[in-house]
Design brief:
Two copies of one chain form a homodimer. By secondary structure, chain A is of the alpha/beta class. Chain A has helices at 14-18, 28-39, 63-69, 85-92, 114-121, 125-141, 165-181, 200-213, 231-241, 274-283, 292-306, 313-317, 337-340, 342-345, 364-380; strands spanning 7-12, 45-51, 77-82, 105-111, 146-152, 156-157, 161-162, 186-193, 219-224, 247-252. Chain A folds into two domains: 7-317, TIM Barrel (Alpha-Beta Barrel), CATH 3.20.20.70; 323-380, no CATH class. Chains A and B meet through helix 5, strand 6, strand 7, helix 8 and helix 9 of A and helix 5, strand 6, strand 7, helix 9 and helix 10 of B.
Chain lengths: 381, 381
């Protein structure tokens, strides 16, 4: 039996996760330009920032101006991070532009790392556990009809090392029990990895166990960081374990930027580059609804906005060229990153480069390729 | 039945594949320093350069001086690329330092892309096919006892688009037939991907078909480029398909550098960063024999030698810290790449950074962690 593919949904994190670790001096106007470019790509969910205190996150000091200034596109959900009641009130004021949380969905979350949660949001793991019953009761009073359970720092921590699958399961089970005890079905599971401890083998094992334990849960959400280069691999492995009954939301960021100052890896924390992930989905035959060309333009703009090299491979080299986009046979030597941008900027970028061929390169293989292209074009016109 | 894991062997390509796309002005002394650092990591196979004409590869103009100057380490195989008889003669002159090719192994190779092979080494695909019978006959006369068959530009080309699995299999079968017709068993298969067309799904399907078609072949070799960010993913998928009867050689490069000027992507072509691959193997429980700390030092040196940022994630952020290497709980904000290097350069790199905690962070989780560490230390001392 061939398994079908899960539905993959992308949450673009560049404006939030990325910008929070980039310079606080990036002008609002540049941020709006990037956000509008991202909106035009076909991405359906975009995190636009965090409504937090500017004291420790000066990068978000003018997030209100960004929200006021950008132009929303129909069909795109724009969301923000809020950490407390004050943030929720600020968010409510932007109800015309932002998608507010689904009031029928309850949420609970526990961190596996007591050190990280203290460093990051100044509470303890025990306080999260102690608050669980109350939070569920309050949600029930508000009439939620289903719930998401979440573990954060799930795979391990830069302060406490690796966590076991049993510990992940224990803290998920604790939440699952709390919701089901009051008759609210758990429909979603979120796993966060702020410190990049994901590994493909731990992901495979965990997904299998979760699917076996709670077969009714169909919606998954992964927030994986990439400080050790395995985030796309782990997301891929998760995709492989799921099937057509499931949805998987993967958080990615334009150019792969991301990180929080609390995790100990700073800008080196990174995320899966959205461009590379969309390109991967294409190669796996999974529809993302995203226009890769526009996404790459947004990736190039992101580098301009942050003022340094970012880490998408596809934006640096271009996608695998197909159809009429295959390269010119007599393209000269291409060596630098600038020259490699010919795929979007045209031949001017390599003008004057060395070219070792005495005669123009010809090939019957290319003749056949072009004849096939022409025939395809004719048959569809 | 649980499948065993294949034996993974790494060919370090930084000095060859990497240096050929970096500046021709890098001093010989710096290259020797990097090569000696790589030798000290536990890597068992290192490509040290290419004995080719300096006219079109000026980066290799002084490769003889590099070979003369480096200090070989016992048990490490040092190899070079040669493209013709002249190169083979130059190589023979370094027989004291370089590992010469196994004379009992025959080799054949066909490119799937006629345009690339013309651009790159100035011959045609048809010429490669026409030369096959003769090459096998000559090898037979020389007494080879087994053979490697190889396809290059296997997954696709920037000039001719994607190639089909049937075409890959046809050109492998053609070579397999030529060797077996004269009674020489094929024991190895090499697949090259100079233009980064590998995808995980094509890799999975291909490996399954190859294993089903030639179950006697136990040794595989993958040379994957990473211009589209899927090389480590594809190598991982190949590992998953193999078992304890197999060996898989994966070519990687320190810092992920690599590319040839002929492929159209230049420096953006890249390879799998050796550091990230070794870290991945560790997380999968596969022994590589490589000291990751020393490898990361070599990765940092590589950035110094080439004079710009390279692309290993693990060298940028450090490995997942374990044992006594977990981070200090009161580490201040870490934001820049420089600050993130605390894991190997110590706390001086983040001196003076913001720190938002009024009191030192304490956690019973950390107390337990340290008690466990101390107990382990005691029990092993």
């Amino acid at each position: 039996m061939t398994k079908g593919k899960p539905i993959i949904s992308i949450l673009e994190e560049g404006m939030r996760e990325g910008m929070q670790i980039e310079s606080a001096d990036i002008p609002v106007e540049a941020k709006i330009r990037l956000l509008d470019a991202l909106s035009a790509t076909g991405l359906k969910r975009i995190h636009v920032g965090a409504l937090v205190s500017p004291k420790w996150t000066p990068q978000m000091a003018k997030v209100d101006e960004v929200i006021e200034g950008f132009t929303p596109v129909d069909g795109v959900e724009y969301t923000v991070v809020v950490l407390n009641q004050k943030g929720a009130e600020r968010r409510a004021g932007f109800g015309d532009k932002l998608t507010l949380p689904d009031p029928t969905l309850g949420r609970s979350r526990i961190h596996l790392c007591d050190v990280f949660v203290r460093r990051n949001i100044n509470i303890t793991q025990q306080a999260e556990i102690d608050a669980l019953q109350n939070a569920v009761a309050t949600a029930q009073e508000k009439g939620v009809t289903h719930a998401e359970i979440s573990i954060n720092a799930a795979w391990g921590s830069n302060w406490l090392g690796e966590f076991s699958e049993d510990e992940r399961m224990r803290l998920l089970q604790m939440q699952h029990d709390a919701w089901t005890a009051v008759g609210i079905p758990v429909t979603r599971i979120h796993i966060g990895d702020p410190m990049s401890w994901n590994t493909p083998s731990a992901m495979r094992s965990m997904m299998r166990r979760v699917l076996a334990t709670w077969p009714d849960v169909r919606d998954f959400h992964l927030h994986l960081h990439d400080a050790r280069g395995s985030a796309m691999l782990s997301a891929y492995v998760a995709m492989q374990e799921l099937d057509e009954r499931h949805t998987l939301q993967v958080d990615t960021a334009i150019g792969g930027m991301g990180g929080c100052p609390y995790c100990g890896n700073g800008r080196a924390t990174r995320m899966i580059p959205t461009e590379d992930f969309v390109h991967l989905l294409q190669s796996e035959g999974i529809e993302s609804g995203v226009d890769l060309r526009k996404l790459i333009e947004a990736g190039a703009l992101a580098e301009e906005v942050v003022g340094h090299e970012l880490w998408s491979k596809v934006t640096a080299a271009g996608p695998r060229p197909t159809g009429a986009d295959v390269y010119a046979m007599d393209m000269p030597f291409v060596e630098t990153f600038e020259e490699a941008q010919h795929f979007r900027r045209g031949p001017s970028v390599y003008e004057g480069a060395l070219s070792p061929w005495r005669e123009p390169v010809q090939s019957p293989g290319r003749d056949e390729y072009e004849a096939r292209l022409a025939a395809e074009k004719e048959s569809t016109s």
